[in-house]
Specification:
Elements lengths: L1 H10 L4 E4 L11 H7 L5 E6 L6 H18 L11 E4 L17 H7 L4 E6 L13 H21 L10
Helix pairs in contact: 3-5
């Protein structure tokens, strides 16, 4: 998933970049609302207002978001929602892409100074394919990635170019 997200971001156009999973659990009809929010924000993240997943998946996702937010301090509601929109000129193409980055793109953008908002998105039952993600096959990878992302944060260059007066 990270490879697909990175390739799409790098190859995307010059104005807006929208990411969405291929399983159609997120509704493509929500995309215009995301693009409208890009008039005011650099990044628009969706959150699934009425999830159509099992109780186990909802609880594990909620727990994972809390742990992740504890370490990243981004306080995003639903990092598992892949429906997101980015202003292309906000520096997203300059990110350091790595395996697992799809979970952290909004966080990395926030750390770079991007403005972020969240809006609700529709969520549908899975019609095609099966999820590759379970609590157990992701837990240690996500923890490992959290350490990597914290390392990246500690190494990020932050600067602002001042205009000459």
């Amino acid at each position: 998933q990270s490879s697909a997200v990175a390739a799409g971001i790098i190859k995307a156009g010059k104005k807006a970049i929208v990411t969405i999973d291929a399983d159609l659990q997120n509704d493509p009809d929500d995309i215009p609302a995301f693009l409208q929010e890009l008039a005011s924000f650099d990044v628009v993240c969706g959150y699934r207002k009425k999830r159509r997943d099992s109780i186990i998946r909802r609880i594990s996702s909620r727990s994972a978001n809390k742990v992740r937010n504890f370490f990243t301090h981004d306080n995003l509601k639903d990092i598992g929602c892949a429906l997101r929109a980015y202003r292309a000129e906000c520096g997203i193409k300059d990110l350091c892409f790595f395996n697992g980055v799809h979970r952290f793109v909004p966080t990395l953008m926030m750390w770079k100074g991007a403005t972020i908002t969240e809006i609700p998105t529709n969520h549908h039952e899975r019609l095609y394919g099966t999820s590759k993600y379970t609590l157990f096959n992701r837990l240690f990878k996500v923890i490992y990635d959290l350490f990597g992302v914290q390392w990246l944060k500690s190494r990020m260059l932050t600067y602002k170019i001042q205009e000459e007066q």
